[in-house]
Amino acid sequence: MNKPGFRITIAAILIFSCISISTVSGKSPVESMFVTTQWLEEHLADPSLLLLHVGRKEGYDKEHIPGARIFSLLEVVVNSPNGLFHERPPIAKLDSVLKSAGVSDTSRIVVYYAESRGISLATRLLLTLDYAGLGDSTSMLQGGFPRWKAENRKLTAELPEALTGNYTPRPNADVFVDGKWINDNIRNPNIVIIDARPEEVYTGIERDSHSKRRGHIAGAFNIPFFELMTEDSPSQLKDAAELAEIFSDNGAKPGSVLVIYCGTGIWASPVYFAAKYLGYDVRFYDGSFQEWTGDKTLPVIEPVKIRPYQ
């Protein structure tokens, strides 16, 4: 084999791959949104590191990454007075919760999921931290706790000392949109609406238990959140090239503003995180389909035919 020519060929492939990924969103993947297990192990003693364990308390009490603090998603989602589930809390409540968790303006926050199926809970927390103005200083651990354990890295049952942070609220108004915003922009060719629910629910063949109608928002594409995950264990988001192809196949293009929703605002969060990672300008519809279907004037694409037994 001609080695110089081989090196040139490999270089060309790598350059082409980078171009293919970056031109989908117009930007390169935001690598800082992830940290590796190796990076985390090397930085466990950093005074600015705030490590948040998203999972069950009984599992956390048994073992967790040294220094990690357990965080319940119930702290940052509320059920609204008008009957909507999993809404963002008022900024005053969010301020209190984050300070109690030890969040400060100088924190370098790393979030990890305790179980592979909990990735949507971790990404919902990451979304909330983005809204709180902490997105640039927050990352997710690649592979989460399952990968950390599989690599036989340090574990402990010891609880960290209580810590109160000095976080300054600075909500990012660009993270969330409401139903009116979507309806006003529903015919805008630069706005791409993405439904993160399973295909059967998106089409309306199966009912969304929290919504008053079947189907999906008119014009919405469908990227079920679990299609963004690897099938191997530990489960994690697919690589950038695979993610870029999925979004491109579902209407996303350079300059697009993506709006992500699901049933109640949990399943959509991995799709939001993946879109942001790819460099898209992305928004989150917190009310999601449960809110949209509460207004009969808002357009819904309903199933053509429902099987009798459903």
Major sheet: arrangement of strands? 1-5-4-2-3
What is the N-to-C order of secondary-structure elements (H for helix, E for strand)?
HEHEHEHEHEHEHEHEEHEHEHE
Quaternary form: single chain
Structural class: alpha/beta
List low-pLDDT spans.
Answer: 1-23, 306-310
Residue fraction in strands: 5-15%
Summary?
With 310 residues, the protein is an alpha/beta fold.
What are the key terms here?
310 residues, alpha/beta, Oxidized Rhodanese, domain 1, five-stranded parallel sheet, disordered N terminus, disordered C terminus
Explained architecture:
- This protein is an alpha/beta fold and 310 residues long.
- It has two domains: 31-150, Rhodanese-like domain (Oxidized Rhodanese, domain 1, 3-Layer(aba) Sandwich), CATH 3.40.250; 176-301, Rhodanese-like domain (Oxidized Rhodanese, domain 1), CATH 3.40.250.10.
- The protein has eleven helices and twelve strands.
- The protein has helices at 3-25, 37-43, 57-62, 91-100, 119-131, 144-150, 179-185, 199-203, 240-248, 268-277, 288-292; strands at 34-35, 49-54, 69-70, 108-113, 138-141, 176-177, 191-195, 216-217, 221-222, 257-261, 281-285, 300-301.
- The strands form three sheets. A five-stranded parallel β-sheet has the order 1-5-4-2-3, with helices on both faces.
- Strand 2 (49-54), helix 3 (57-62) and strand 3 form a beta-alpha-beta unit.
- Helix 1 (3-25) packs across helix 9.
- The longest helix is centred in the N-terminal third of the chain and has 23 residues, at 3-25.
- Mean pLDDT is 90; it is low at 1-23 and 306-310.
